[in-house]
Structures are given as structure tokens and as C-alpha cells.
Amino acid sequence: MDRLDAFKHIAAQASRGDLAFPTNVNASIRLQEALSDPNCHVEAAAKLIQADPLLAARTVAIANSVAYNRSGTEISSVRSAVQRLGVRTLQSLVAALIVRQLGSKIVDPALQAMSAQLWEHTAHVAALAQVIARRVTHVDPDTALFTGIIHEVGAFYMLAQADAYPGIMQGEPEDWVEHGEVEIGRGVLRKLVVPEAVMQSVEAMWDGLRALPPENLGDTLLLANDLAPVPSPMHQRPGATTPAAARTLDFAVGDGTLDTILRESASDVQSLFAVLML
């Protein structure tokens, strides 16, 4: 099977919902589904998080990050962390865990390097999206964080499958974008029960152009993607701005400017990024 046929084969499987996830990913997906239940409240969420030591540690860490600890009061219990963060932020942490678990199963060193770069890019985008949502577009910051974390999940799934198809990622990135990204991305996002608004925002990143100044969740994701200092090794959207060029963008936001907001929020971005990279 040549490269393009392999892309098409995996894409067809994803379109049918025939996705092959490792056991630990399936367990995390079940946790995500439980947190998505509107009847899942703080006490139940805390018990679910405590069952996973790694996730519990990350939950406490992000609750103590600059972005979520405005008072400067550190906490040490999962229950207190869940109360501070809320269930929706926990969904973002579980999504991050799912993405990292997909990358952890990769064996080929070249694919491992791509996965590591992709996660670094993802963490930057998620942290920037949360701040841009809060300070610029005024869309829900928790949704923006979640969208940033899962915006490349289809690419992570592809890398996790690539070990079984030697050489599939050795060609031009455009082959992945043209023959696999959309179908595989949609299939994985549906499996994760991603809300429609988030799905539409990720699809806008695949082929859309953002408005300036940014207005909605899709614009928030696109601007965060352009500003991320580490590019995705898998996706360069049409008309994308390089990080260096994106950081020269400046426009009025209320009484300030984008540049001012980015400088004022640098510690928030770095704190969130550091937690996601744990």
C-alpha cells in the first residue's frame, strides 16, 4: 500500500468511526464522557480525577497556576482543585491526557520527534487561546482552552497509526492535509464527543482565514495558532502567518492593544504552558 492509499484507508476507517485506540486512551475517553454528563458535579468529578494519579497531580498543578490562582493561595487537595477549576476545565485536562496518551504509543524515533513538537505547539496554542479568549474576544476561556488542546488531535491519531505504515509521514505535509486531515480529524473529534461549536472552530483552522480583530472562537484559535512560537509539524493552514510575523500584528482592544495584552499576560501563558507540558 503506497502512502496516499494508506492515508485514504485510515481516513475511510475514521469516517466510519472505526478508530483503534490503546486501552489507556479508551479509559480516558470514558472519563471524558462521564465529565460531560450534566449531572456530574464537583464531588463526583473529584472522585473520578483521584482515580488517576497523574491526572490528579496535573489538576492540582493547574489549579495553582497563575491563570487560575489569582489570590495566590495554593491548594494541595484534588477536591479543592476541582472546586477552583470546575468540571469544564477538567474536561480540558482529560483531553490533554488523551492526546498525550496517543503520542506515548509511538515507537519510531522520527515520529516521536514529530509528536513531541506537535504537543509543544498544542500546549502553546491552548495557553494562548485561553488568554486571547479572556482578554480579546471575550468568548468562554474554558472552551478556548479545550479547543486549543484538541485542535490537532486528528494529527496525533495519525502519528499513532503511522508505525503500522512505514514511510507514510516521509513525504510532503500537503499529502496529509489533502488526503487525511479532515476525515481523520472529524472522526476522532466525534469519538471524543466534541461540541459542535468547537468542531466548527477546528474546521475553520483547517481552511479558514481569521478576522482582525478576532471576534469568535474560530478566530481565537486561528490567532493563537499563528502566535504559537513552535509551529505544527503536521498542519500549515492556507494563508497562515509565521509566529514572528503574527507577533508584529497589533490592533486596538478596548483601551489597549493586542501587543500590550500579550505582554501583560505572558506569565499566564507561560504558567498554563508549563502545566500542560508536565
Automatic annotation (TrEMBL):
Signal peptide: none annotated. InterPro entries: HDOD (IPR013976), RNase_Y/CdgJ (IPR052340). PROSITE patterns: HDOD (PS51833). Residues 21-208 form the HDOD domain. Pfam families: HDOD. This is HDOD domain-containing protein.
